Amino acid sequence: MKITYIHHSSFLAELKETALLFDYFQGNLSLPEGKPAVVFASHRHGDHFSPVIFELAKERDFMVRNSEATAGHNAAPEIGARLGDKKDTMELIRMFALKYQVFKNGTCHFADIRSGKRHEVKYRTRVIESGMPTDWRKVHEKNDGKRVLLDTEVFLHCYFEAHANIYTGINEMLLQSCDGIIRVFPAAEQGMNAAFELYAAGGFRVVSEMVRGEILYVSVTASVQSDCRLENPWEQEEPIRIISQDCEIPFEEMEGVVKFHMEADEICVIERCNRPLCCYYQNEITGKENTGVKQFKGNQLGCDQEF
């Protein structure tokens, strides 16, 4: 094994058949050729994780995993979704939901989820005076500003980072547009049933539906006049068309990306020529609210607050 220190907590471990990269966010990096690389991100703070690893993944055979896949402030679901990991992304999201329902308050902080016990320690919380600005770069500085000792029990019910990872992971699994190209269901698991209405970069409202792993259509609404770029979600040999106000509109397609012009408030539906949207059944979703006890794999959800 060869270990190379890179920067801060980042280092590269070269094994016989694999390269392991830990917490990379900056610094000189020379990856060995001919070996798959596994990237570990311990959590999503800027000195342990950087989106630059996505660019590395485009050039090589990469797998990205978190050292602890259920830590609230790591980026496991987002990383898996951004890399199009259809196998593991949904499982990572499920794992978050499962692990963070150990306690009554649901998503929580300062809890040892492996043993089901809480840390009985004090936390040096910063006191924010009236009118005092908050510098997010110093949020983890333990000695900066006026402090007060509080039991960690106080914080067990307010861990929003885990919520953010769940929601962002789901969003990235269903829709991505970070580079100006709209991608629908880029990391949806095989055989998935799902539908969404989400906003993409550029002021586009995107609606799409997947049934048993098959994408039925994509609907795009523009808030401003602009060109829309959409990654073709179907096989390249399958012809598509774009409908606006019951008429087909012209488009260009290059390297799997469809480009077409849209006016403000215009709605365009992208569909397959041999399987247009009108061929599918339209089922109205019915049901009633579940007001009983919610459970997920043995864990009871929606309990009364403990504090």
Brief characterization of the structure:
The chain has four helices and 22 strands. The chain has 307 residues and is of the alpha+beta class.
What distinguishing features does this structure have?
single chain; alpha+beta; six-stranded antiparallel beta sheet; five-stranded mixed beta sheet
How would you portray this structure in words?
With 307 residues, this protein is of the alpha+beta class. The chain has helices at 52-59, 76-82, 89-99, 160-174, and strands spanning 2-7, 10-14, 19-22, 37-40, 62-65, 111-112, 117-118, 122-126, 147-151, 175-176, 183-184, 194-200, 204-211, 214-222, 226-231, 240-244, 247-248, 252-254, 257-262, 267-272, 294-296, 299-301. The strands form 7 sheets. Strands 12-13-14-20-16-17 form a 6-stranded antiparallel β-sheet, with no helix packed on it. Strands 1-2-3-4-5 form a 5-stranded mixed β-sheet. A 3-stranded antiparallel β-sheet has the order 15-19-18, with no helix packed on it. The relative contact order is 0.10.
